[in-house]
Amino acid sequence: MSEQGKGSVSASAAAPAPGSDTYKGWLFKWTNYLKGYQRRWFVLSNGLLSYYRTQAEMAHTCRGTINLATAHIDTEDACNIVLSSGGRTYHLKASTEVERQRWVTALELAKAKAIHDSGDEEPTSQSDRSELQGTLKLLVSKLDDLSTCNDLIAKHGAALQRSLTELEGLKVTIEGGEKIKAVNERATLFRITSNAMINACRDFLDLAETHSRRWQRALQYEREQRTHLEETIEQLAKQHNSLERAWREAPTLASSSPSAPVTNKGESNKEEASDEDEDTEYFDAMEDSPAFITVTASESTQHRSMSPSCNDVSGKELQPRRERRTRVPDKPNYSLNLWSIMKNCIGKELSKIPMPVNFNEPLSMLQRLTEDLEYHELLDKAARCESSLEQMCLVAAFSVSSYSTTVHRTAKPFNPLLGETYELDRLEEFGYRSLCEQVSHHPPAAAHHVISQRGWTLWQEITIASKFRGKYLSIMPLGAIHLQFHSSGNHYVWRKVTSTVHNIIVGKLWIDQSGDIEIVNHRTKETCQLKFSPYSYFSRDVPRKVTGVVADSSGQAHYILSGTWDDKMESAKIIQSSRGGSGSEGKQKTVYQTLSPKLLWKKYPLPENAENMYYFSALALTLNEPEEGVAMTDSRLRPDQRLMEDGRWDEANAEKQRLEEKQRAVRRRREAEASEALDEGEQSRAKGREYEGYQPLWFHQRRDSLTGETEFVYKGGYWETKENQDWSICPDIF
């Protein structure tokens, strides 16, 4: 088939010089004979060539990944590149011959490096095997020497015995005969002992050889099993991607014309490269669809949907602010293979996996928890609302807004040390004060308390349960969030949804939120049901979609909420509802007629150069800014975190290990004290002295009357201690 029949031949690539860690640019990729070559954004990194429809897709959707370690690289003409890997063939085109050659050079270098890295483990096992065989040979040679000595001893011993026997036959004095007989007996004993020694040495060598072969077989079996498991996991990941592509291709193949022209063998090979790159939208028949349909009413039927006191809900209030920093040092470009570390951690708690700071961002989990206050003005506005239903809409928007900072933030925050604290004092600027403390280490739990002069108090205790599943990482926050408004007494309670980090093995890391949130106003019994839809290749919905319904105590719906957790949320007042047709599962849906939606919350744009500053928001950039007067346990004073922010990652790794070992030593001492107290009680046949164990400084455990759960709540005293600048009760954790 002619080149004209394949599609356009131009492409544009913008990439650094070959040899750098990452190579990026535009290429045309062959999809099928209907669409020919399609423009795709390619990224070459760590021996993997990934491609996307657009540069923006790098944040969440990888369309395919080619492992160069097992790929064959070839060229067809001046601009073509052909990659073969895993039974698939990929046909790529560059814009010029020069650009094609740059890509080929970069691909060849990446392939050579990937092959070299994958072979690092084998020489070690070969050297171990050679050393073991050399030791066995040395033992055999020493045994041969002993055997030779034994033969000589036996030979000379026999000659000595003959001589002594001859002496006994001679006429000698009785005393001389006695001495000769004694020497003869000693010579016999010597020969018997030397034979026993040789036999013992031979038995030892036989045993060593037997056990050596047994351990060699066991070690080789374990190596093979490990390699097999790694290959199986990687193959499963590839098969999963292949199944997704096959599912997307199925509608196209089924609808293709039976009179399509027959292609030759070369053309069929190109058809193999057809994959998910179709622009057609597909519908996921299995996805959960909302149980309602909304219809916007005409403008003539609209009325005011929000009370004047809380109608303006977009944009930050203009406040005179203290000048705070607007940037942090750029993130260094240190390459590290995530899979090489994570493959040994499958099924473990994330908090128990020792991680280098290369996977971290220079903030602690306490500071990430404080980031929930990024859109605190939503609560300020909610406190002024006269209608509890309108207040519920703003509280729901606040609960969604806390996820907006996570869309690009795939790095892991530092695990706080036991007793570590973090304060955020924005009393003068925004009227609130926030305090977090790490109250437990295993399981890791943090308590958080915020009080605002603008009419609200928020508190929560969050325990993070996380599991690495091989291809993705699930993060499940456990614990309830409480919000109370001072004037009305409205008390709201809700819980967070599950966060999932995808493409742990191959491809670009991206994060998703999924699950349901139920917000309950325990004073009025009004509720809000929020649904975070998981991302799906096949869904026609916008990614990161959130929908919700606000209902009164009787269950009647009053507001519809809609939006995305990374951009905005809107509310629409319901003016009429009716029963509609059945859905795909036979369930009858409710049709809501609503007024035009009103904006509740809109995400602020990221600061300039955010991609080089860990994708921090404006608030996140200020969280680790040094401040005077904070407690000696404050996260801002944590040395490994500060070193990482300054770009000194090697020193940060060493400091992180020192802090963790110091924390382990304190825990061992605490366990020894508890054991000692128990032993004293047993010896005296009494209860023994009471041992309390670790007690947080600023929070204590209380049973919540609404949820019935035991949780840590603020007991007071921190801000008074700060005012007096007396931190003598704080432990030395850094």
UniProtKB/TrEMBL annotation:
Source organism: Oryzias melastigma (Marine medaka)
Taxonomically, the superkingdom here is Eukaryota
Q: State the family named in the UniProt similarity comment for this chain.
A: Belongs to the OSBP family.
Give its localization.
Membrane
**PANTHER family xrefs:** OXYSTEROL-BINDING PROTEIN 2, OXYSTEROL-BINDING PROTEIN-RELATED
Which Gene Ontology MF annotations are present? cholesterol binding
> Where does this protein have compositionally biased stretches of type Polar residues?
298-312
Please state the span of the N-terminal signal peptide per the UniProt entry.
none
In its UniProt record, which GO terms are filed under biological process? lipid transport
UniProt keyword annotation of Phosphoprotein present: yes
Q: What is this protein called?
A: Oxysterol-binding protein
Q: Name one Pfam family in it.
A: Oxysterol_BP
Which residue intervals are annotated with compositional bias (Basic and acidic residues) in the record?
314-329, 642-664
Query: Can the keyword Protein biosynthesis be found in this entry's annotation?
Result: no
- Where is it predominantly found? membrane
GO CC annotation, single = plasma membrane
Note the InterPro entries from the entry.
OSBP_sf, Oxysterol-bd, Oxysterol-bd_CS, PH-like_dom_sf, PH_domain
Q: Which Gene3D superfamilies match?
A: 2.40.160.120, Pleckstrin-homology domain (PH domain)/Phosphotyrosine-binding domain (PTB)
